[in-house]
Amino acid sequence: MPRKPRVSLPGVPEHIIQRGNNRQIIFASNEDMQAYVTWLADYAQQFDVAVHAWVLMTNHVHLLCTPKSSGAISTMMQSVGRRYVQYFNRRYQRSGTLWEGRFRSCLVQEESYLLQVYRYIELNPVRAGMVTDPADYSWSSYQSNGLGKQTKLLLPHPLYLRLGTTDKERQQHYRALFKHQVEGKLLEDIRKAANKGLVLGNERFVGEVEALTSKPLREGKRGRRIGWRKENALN
Question: What residue stretches are annotated with the Transposase IS200-like domain (predicted)?
Answer without folding.
Answer: 9-124
